[in-house]
Amino acid sequence: MDTTYWPATTGNGITIDEVLSWVRPHLLALKPYSSARDEFSGEAQVFLDANENAFGPVGISGNWHRYPDPHHAALKQQIGNLKGMDPSQIFIGNGSDEAIDLLYRCFCEPGVHKALLLPPTYGMYQVSAGINGVEKVSVVLDNAYQPQVERVLAKAQQDPAIRLLFLCSPNNPTANLISPASILSILAGFKGIIVLDEAYIDYCQEATGLPLLAQFPNLVVVQTLSKAWGLAALRVGMAFAHPAIISLLNKVKPPYNLAGPTQELALAALANVERKNEGVQSTLTLRASLLLSLGSLPMVERLYPTDANFVLVRLKATHNASEVYHKLTAMGIVVRDRSSQPGCANCLRITVGTEAENPKLLAGLLTI
Length: 368
Ligand SMILES: *Cc1c(COP(=O)(O)O)cnc(C)c1O
Hints:
The protein is α/β, with parallel strands linked by helices.
């Protein structure tokens, strides 16, 4: 493997044919929607094939009267160059939430198959399970917010209906990376689709699991442009996986899931990878000073280690996290109350803000 981050591994013996045997059968047989432009490949000046408005968009300028590229070819090329992946290994969704939803729809028969979650973790895994009529099974993270690998694998072994397992690294809301050894052990022992959600990976790039794709055909790595790239409003998420899984996701997605302006703006932003990396460096610097300041507040019991652009803070029993949350809100400062999550009693999740925002948060906390 081309990285020193991951211990050597020889894979898990699962073949892509076995992975495809987990796909819901009606989807394997499905013939996808074929757009007018799919059926025509050549040069033309006159497009009268898609019932678009030939006179142009109303009230604004731009090429918005034409349907956008359903295959996101330019974006995939650019993302592939940045990540060292072939376009055939890349799916692009309307946010990574769309990729998560499609994975449920592709691999989980409602009322039959289940998803294994490791809370505390990202809320969408459970919401998406619920929307798709998929039962959730949980094995909580340990005190260091790492997976209890043996319990996870035992749970999966007892229940062959478990088809999807979500690992979030760095994990939201705890902010820590999942240890590479735990990820590899779970990959070695779980016979289902493992989704590795790397929404925050730009803040610790060396830890990406992308190199593992070469050895594990049941792995799907999910990333997003919503965090370090600063494009949350555009809704662009990526899934990286074996080309056979990517074809399946492409077949099931709505044909025009990424709007034209989204594709154009994302493409323009992605040309500035140095700017993104500088932004990450500034965030890490601001994070260090935020941690120092938070650590000096009497109300803070514990700051958890962070590999992301946020920090999980446990307050002392003298301060109720939900009350602190509401008091901050009244001052116009919004953080996230995570105190109801398993293992997060009396915890707030705080995003690293700008040079101007962080002092406002600290000043607010000092008045409580
Ligand atoms: C923010 C976040 C995402 C991003 O979702 P998008 O739909 O791409 O905006 C995904 N996973 C986790 C864990 C997140 O925290």
